[in-house]
Amino acid sequence: MAAGSARYVRYILVAFFILAGLYFVSNSRAVAPPAVPLSGSGNTAAPVNGGGDTTKGAPNAPKIGSDYDPAKFPMAMTPNDPGWNDLAGIKDGPRMNATFVTLARNSDVWEIAKSIRQVEDRFNRRYGYDWVFLNDQPFDDTFKKVTTSLVSGKTHYGLIPEEHWSFPEWIDTDKAAKVREDMKQRQIIYGDSISYRHMCRFESGFFFRQALMMNYDYYWRVEPSIELYCDVHYDPFRYMHENNKKYSFVLSLLEYMETIPTLWDSVKKFMKNHPEHIAAGNSLGFLSDDGGETYNRCHFWSNFEVGSLNWLRSDQYIDYFNSLDQDGGFFYERWGDAPVHSIAAALMLKKEELHFFNDIAYYHVPFTHCPTGEKTREALKCHCNPKENFDWKGYSCTSKFFDVNNMEKPKGWEEES
Length: 417
Ligand SMILES: Nc1nc2c(ncn2[C@@H]2O[C@H](COP(=O)(O)OP(=O)(O)OP(=O)(O)O)[C@@H](O)[C@H]2O)c(=O)[nH]1
Ligand SMILES: [Mg+2]
Known about the structure:
With 417 residues, the chain is an alpha/beta fold.
């Protein structure tokens, strides 16, 4: 009798554990992150170019792609929108096929570490976007270790192929050397530097087609020693995608004419040869005050950019870059990637495809973009000094950008000019 009841007790215990197990399994499924119906953008993984590749990344991160219903994942764009102050934990919802990208030397490690820390604290710790590092020399272990430890997403390290960081065969290197000597005498900033010229040419025509970058649709460029002064409450990549933006900026200014004496002639030649690439409803008025005859030196400062890689990889942009590159001004003058990108964006994109990120507060020596308006700065928990805001000063072109686009300037802009 006692043996029989012990058997029943055993059956009951086994049944209890089976039921408890089933309950646990079904319950843990219920709390898994919601599936995001995304299909990806059709890109396939490119081989790792040069350096290592880490496999870190949030294990439960939302899937990546662009096939989703934005209405199902509302993005808080203003303090009045629900979820604005939801700055803790990993954000659910879709991710764009996007990456941060940094060109750097091994010696830049501690300066880029500062930049990464700010980008992560103000934005990326909640999103886990990847970060691609590019270099003309192999990255060393310290660089990889430090940067990987700071980035919440996956990190990738690429070695730039020599043909993207050297004199093309049509360049007369003696002539280029004489130019550098002359610019040195005239004390033009970076005027005597070869590596600076390779850097500008690389950022103008090659970063977006490195093997590692072929995996992505959008990029956010980050340089060493920058500051991000305010919280970024929404996903700028998603903003770009959902609003069909192709290029964006936070600071704009006038270029040194000594570095680009014939750039506009070269651009005019391109426009004549490729009228099919010039957009109707473009922003020529941002670049020229006389209907395109001369360049007014306005450009977006390209050390910060969030943009479309597919646009940079388009025939339109590649034809433009090749035409400029053939003319030789990266070496016979000192064309910067900022005017080169800006002129392309202003001529070959529709006005509406450009965007000014007022709410991304930013510093790269020596200029600051600090959002105008005390309310905005408080809502974004900014730590920049509004007196240092460059937007409305005489050397900035942001006021012109607002005028060209018939945009209303933020309240209080006159006091900052
Ligand atoms: N790998 C590599 N990266 C470089 C080289 N020169 C510049 N860079 C990177 O290219 C970007 C632009 O260079 P910077 O020296 O910052 O140029 P800049 O912003 O015009 O000038 P600064 O006012 O000095 O910042 C930065 O991300 C640098 O780290 C180089 O020779 N090799
Ligand atoms: Mg810099």
